[in-house]
Design brief:
The structure is a homodimer. By secondary structure, chain A is α/β, with parallel strands linked by helices. Chain A is built from 17 helices and 30 strands. In chain A, strands 1, 2, 3, 4, 5, 14, 15, 16 and 17 form a 9-stranded mixed beta sheet that branches. An 8-stranded parallel beta sheet of chain A has the order 6-7-8-9-10-11-12-13.
Chain lengths: 570, 570
Amino acid sequence: MNSLAGLLKAARGLEPADLVLKGGKVFNVFSGVFEETDLAIKDGIIVGLGRYDGQEEADMSGRWLIPGLIDTHMHIESTQLCPGELARVIVPRGTTAIVADPHEIANVLGLDGIRFMLSASEGLPLDVFLNVPSCVPATHMETAGAELAAEDLAELLNAPRVLGLAEVMNFPGVINGLPGVLDKLRLFAGRPIDGHAPFLSGRDLCAYVLPGIATDHECTNLEEAGEKLARGLRILIREGSTARNLEALLPLVSPGNLRRLAFCTDDRHPEDLIREGHLDHILRKALFLGLDPVSALTMATLNPAETFGLNDRGALAPGRIADVVVLESLDRMQVERVYKNGRLAAENGRLLGSMPPLEMPAWISPMNIGPLDEATLEVEAAGPLVRVIEVVEHQVLTGCLTVETPALDGLVVADPGRDLARIVVVERHKGTGNVGKGLVKGLGLKAGALASSVAHDSHNIVAAGMSTADLLAAVRAVEKMGGGQAVVLDGRVLAQLPLPIAGLMSDAPADQVAETGARLKDAARQTGAALTDPFMTLSFLALAVIPSLKITDMGLVDVEKFAIVPMFPE
Amino acid sequence: MNSLAGLLKAARGLEPADLVLKGGKVFNVFSGVFEETDLAIKDGIIVGLGRYDGQEEADMSGRWLIPGLIDTHMHIESTQLCPGELARVIVPRGTTAIVADPHEIANVLGLDGIRFMLSASEGLPLDVFLNVPSCVPATHMETAGAELAAEDLAELLNAPRVLGLAEVMNFPGVINGLPGVLDKLRLFAGRPIDGHAPFLSGRDLCAYVLPGIATDHECTNLEEAGEKLARGLRILIREGSTARNLEALLPLVSPGNLRRLAFCTDDRHPEDLIREGHLDHILRKALFLGLDPVSALTMATLNPAETFGLNDRGALAPGRIADVVVLESLDRMQVERVYKNGRLAAENGRLLGSMPPLEMPAWISPMNIGPLDEATLEVEAAGPLVRVIEVVEHQVLTGCLTVETPALDGLVVADPGRDLARIVVVERHKGTGNVGKGLVKGLGLKAGALASSVAHDSHNIVAAGMSTADLLAAVRAVEKMGGGQAVVLDGRVLAQLPLPIAGLMSDAPADQVAETGARLKDAARQTGAALTDPFMTLSFLALAVIPSLKITDMGLVDVEKFAIVPMFPE
């Protein structure tokens, strides 16, 4: 604020502004119109709209100017990109701020992981705000790298760019008044608290909203979204790589409730970001589906800003940060330029200027696997029937089958004829030597093995394969990379993607990550993997909060019973 | 939050709520509809909507339930009522919270005055929030009771119920970057800052908005309001006793900008509150003028709450304070009951329960007048022509005339034939003995004198009269009351209204204040006073920030020149 006097002079036109964007069609989110006017900027702040002169001037005639787009909820880890590389991809597409939930890295590295995300996102042409994860670990039926109680989260309360509490997935904990959960809600009272409560309804929904939970991004149908909206939740319409709710929820939007709606991507893969885009893609799709541009833009600018109390942005108005996106076309949401803090940050799809170097502390790649050999991975065939995880493509949930045990020499084996692969989860945080073992149906594997250190939510190493040797080789390949994803066939690593940041993210350039990811999928196809994205499917087989049968380092989890169950039913 | 677990149980219907309002048409401000449903309350908090049982239940069938109404900007002092008596009048009309600006009492008593307003509004069935006055004193051409710099205001930053900075009337100070003004803006950065900038436009308006000023309640025409809205100010549409802007501004309201609009009363007299109402009156008038009920109610509930970050109210939703207004009729906005914090606070126009006693410290009636006698009030006729303040009825501004000096024995005298009365402002805060003297045209006085300790903004004693003796008697009557308003004829006090709270407010019951006020006006008519509200007119003749010619204890003020000018032009 030291330069306030200078800003005022520029606003009054008594001194030239640093930069004037001349004569564009400026989106006014408050009145819902486009004004043909100059936009004057000084010290990274919008100082005025009207007739202005600047030390630098840029002709914007025929262009649309909109505020920088804001993603209300995303997991950076899902992009497999480090924050800087994420910025390289999404800033040229018009995103200038995101509210990220570092839930995944927190499950691996705890507070250190969250602090890493803060430091790794410093000095970027993208403002990365964090909501701190509320559910680390997700369950007590798995070994996570960390456990975060309210007193741990309290250490981050005053960290810069920390806004509030991230998605409170433990909705049974909330409505049943679990002390540990309530402690976290109390800690963040008066600050943004994100919800996550699929299908919650009626009085239970009232209970969930009561302690101050303010948003929900899990709505999948109109009725659900309408009820949550009516009870006071702001609805963050999600359109990610897997969960795509825009089409189902768009009919919800009306002038009367627009202010309570915003967009988010939640989980978005690097290939999709590069190919389709980020919020620009959502806006394009929304317009295609019939939403008017004013409503769509409002949901990506002012509404996100208001939801998280970011009153310094979300609109092109005096005193706000000069995050300005220049559109070549409004109906195609074609981004030509992006100004971040009043400086040209991207043009024609490319980020300008250099990125601050990424500092990688030694502890960022924890890989602490206990004793492990082929014998450790074997399972005795202890019964005639065996529980099997059934993959449901494009869904995070799974089925639970009971089938005749495929066995050889008294050991459980894969059975390509029945599309049964072996699956293991190898604990990698504390060297416990835990290995969860089971069978999975539906991956399509014929030979070889896939392994990944991305395995929600504890991110132990999950591997599926047709032979013990390949399973072990795949796990070892991931271990050797300090985290990552690998495809092994006949003992040989066909392809691998190193994810040295907590085993979740790459430090490589974005296009390289996307390319390696594509090669990885190609290689997986050589093992017979028939799914669109077998590594994503694999990563959710360990997610012990979504029904029905899942697997963690502690064994098979019957999610409905919320209990570890033996492989061989009694 | 200790009882959070209990609230959750009630929300889930596992335990009965304290109170259930059954089967009313509940206004849902988020979705813009009325839902026929129960509303469950526990510990003063709304716990749920749906089917509920309560220890107490009230049948609401056929009734409309709306959130408690919120006035975004008002000066309690203008009502002449103490906060408790104000609550007695406006709570039964549906107002459950106000954002008050104690500008007047601060000009008399400084921080002590503001603290008095806080303590006098404790424990009421009305939540009184304060924005702290930004402009005490209003000018340096008058003697106020206090001067409040940023460092003084800082003492109130963390006081309970203090929200932000009240109307920044010194707009030239803002846009010219006056350090003392910027200090106050910096002090309240990130908190609500109210604006007050009549007719400001273009680049100067941009400069005014830039440092974070968030609202404006001074718009009088559509174009002005439209521009201010577009630049990011929230528009508080004012409908007070004198300034009535609702009709002019209502065409501004559209679905696209509704969220940026709210109502306020600013200055409202006790008779009008009692006769017409408060926000209920504004709502009635808005509906009469054609606004739909959903928009109107949104502007009096959720929008005010969001404007001031009062996220615990403004909607009937789980977790919010149970301030509920029961309407017998929606189109006539007929209030039947008011629940405050879940307790029945008013019914059929009457407040229930007892009010906490008003503590009146000895220093609350400061009256420190210097040496004063008839001679002090006289003015020598020092020239053939004299400057005269010209009253413009129903306006706060005045004209400036130059007329032939009415004189007798070398002294200036009143001249009823030309409707010229004498006017004096007697300093009452510091015993300086200052007396500003002049002539005023247009009051209609034939004889006697009127005096008042309500004299914006420094609230010295202003008196207008036809003889020196009556002027002195009227001033003495006000002094004797420890502040108030008096009508004197032929040396006798015809009527008087004591205002012992800083010379601005009464400690008497509201109806008594209104009654005495009416008697005072009747008495004024006996002196010939021809205006609708001569005391209000009188109170604005000392307001040295509104053109043209005004009078303070330091003399006549030419507001355009922003300077003291002599009575006899050179």
